[in-house]
């Protein structure tokens, strides 16, 4: 059975000193899970911040994602070793295939088996996928075996609730990791969420994150501001009631923010 921590720090779009400061602040505040990716171009900075924190590696959970250029059998493991060098670690806790990239010339079975081999070599403790639809998730399970895929990391927010896909993943015992849970900040202006936040003396961001956590999803919000990092973490203590959850369910509008051509699948 996979174990995915439910609350972590995302580092998408954070570069240079900005990402070093974000990771350092997060670790000081008690975060222990950090999500990066080869394409983010910040693995070395994440590795530096982790090394300088003095926190034992065994207490941290680090995720990275293989970029499409490295999906071939000959590229995947060497690229992961490069990521480990940058991260200053012998292993990552979780490695994901970043996008299914159906047209990029590498078969799904090839990259999933290369990923499984990386796990067998001890380069990664767990393996998973990101941005996969139901059909492709089925193929990934077939390629590496039932119970091997720890998570599918997907865009998910009150405006994009992805109920079909999440129900399928939960039925398969695959953890759902939600990214862009705040829809690039768009949900922060939502009057329904603002009403729920006022009722609980919470922030709208906390409400959106608590909603995802209560549905059993893991979340990886990012922030460059220490006070927001601290505030986001407090979403873990916020308990929404059935009425709150029902109200948030009505906000679904298929509001997808990220849909890169050539990388994304046909969404469910």
Structural account:
It is built from ten helices and eight strands. The protein has 268 residues and is of the alpha/beta class. The protein has a single domain (9-183, 216-234), classed as Alpha-Beta Barrel (TIM Barrel). Helix 2 (43-53) links the parallel strand 2 and strand 3 (61-66). The protein is globular, with a radius of gyration of 18 Å. The relative contact order is 0.14.
Layout: helices, strands, pairs:
Layout: E1 9-10, H1 16-29, E2 33-35, H2 43-53, E3 61-66, H3 73-87, E4 92-97, H4 108-120, E5 124-130, H5 134-144, E6 149-155, H6 163-171, E7 175-179, H7 191-199, H8 204-214, E8 218-219, H9 226-233, H10 242-249
Parallel strand pairs: 1-2, 2-3, 3-4, 4-5, 5-6, 6-7, 7-8
The strands making up the biggest β-sheet line up spatially as 1-2-3-4-5-6-7-8
And the CATH topology?
Answer: TIM Barrel
Number of strands: 8
Distance N to C terminus: 26 Å
Specify the CATH class: Alpha Beta
Number of separate structural domains: 1
CATH superfamily: NADP-dependent oxidoreductase domain
Radius of gyration: 18 Å
The dominant shape is globular
Strand content: 5-15%
Q: Which percent bin holds the helix content?
A: 40-55%
Runs in which pLDDT lies below 50 for 5 or more consecutive residues are: none
CATH architectural designation: Alpha-Beta Barrel
Oligomer: single chain
Main sheet record: 8 strands, parallel
In DSSP terms (H or I, runs of 4 or more residues), the helix count works out at 10
Q: List SSEs in N-to-C order.
A: EHEHEHEHEHEHEHHEHH
